[in-house]
Specification:
By secondary structure, the chain is mostly helical. The protein has helices spanning about 5-10, 15-20, 20-40, 45-65, 70-90, 100-115, 120-130, 140-170, 175-180, 185-200. The chain has one domain (about 15-200). This is DUF3159 domain-containing protein. It holds the Pfam family DUF3159. InterPro entries: UCP010219. Keywords: Membrane, Transmembrane, Transmembrane helix.
């Protein structure tokens, strides 16, 4: 006898659903290239910018060859170009990392607000990946679990804000390049594991799982 969907996918990991490690690793390569180019060029922002853009183009080409979406590749390349232009304009190498710092501030705020308004972004993302749209919001247990697990993602962004902010203030270009690696896929992987644990920890033992949101009981007269 089948034990139902709960026994098959109730503990499906967020890492397997959302991935993220490869994308985070690719995104950390241009900042590392910037730091290496800046250092090797005798603190030259131009060399650092050229190295970052060149590596971003190579990474993008590899992603397209492997079946990646051209739109996503262009967005990633544009982000690196903008960061390079900011650093060249201000004349401060650390400003290459300013967009990343600001994006983490915005992400922390967005995830926190989503929890407060009961539209936790973790639920939105997982619901989109699973093709559920907003059906998960009809399940109070899932909404509560997604909300609590989303705080782990808020913490992830805040960690980056604190570390990047301190290094940016200290004008530490090489340290920022290293931090971009340490706080990219290792932190993403840790966030997926911890938020997944929190998510399933908050669900009732008899919950059918992420792929099967419980529907509220209907009330009313029957004929």
């Amino acid at each position: 006898m089948s034990e139902g969907p709960a026994s098959n996918d109730r503990r499906e990991s967020l890492a397997s659903l959302l991935g993220g490690r490869k994308g985070a690793l690719d995104a950390s390569l241009p900042p590392v290239a910037f730091g290496i180019g800046w250092f090797a060029g005798g603190s030259s922002i131009g060399w650092g910018a050229a190295a970052a853009v060149a590596v971003s183009i190579v990474v993008g080409a590899v992603r397209i060859v492997r079946g990646g979406r051209a739109g996503a590749v262009l967005v990633s390349l544009a982000a690196v170009v903008v960061a390079a232009l900011i650093a060249l304009y201000t004349g401060r190498a650390v400003d290459f990392f300013l967009p990343q710092l600001l994006s983490n501030v915005a992400s922390a705020l967005a995830w926190a607000v989503s929890i407060v308004v009961r539209w936790p972004l973790l639920g939105v993302v997982v619901g989109f990946v699973l093709g559920q749209r907003t059906r998960w919001r009809s399940d109070p247990a899932l909404v509560r679990a997604y909300s609590r697990a989303s705080w782990v993602w808020v913490a992830q962004y805040l960690i980056r804000v604190v570390v990047f902010g301190a290094l940016w203030t200290a004008d530490a270009v090489v340290a920022l390049s290293v931090a971009r690696v340490v706080l990219s896929w290792p932190l993403v992987l840790a966030t997926l594991v911890v938020s997944g644990w929190v998510l399933y920890r908050c669900l009732p033992d008899d919950h059918p799982g992420l792929r099967h949101p419980s529907q509220p009981a209907t009330t009313g007269n029957t004929i």
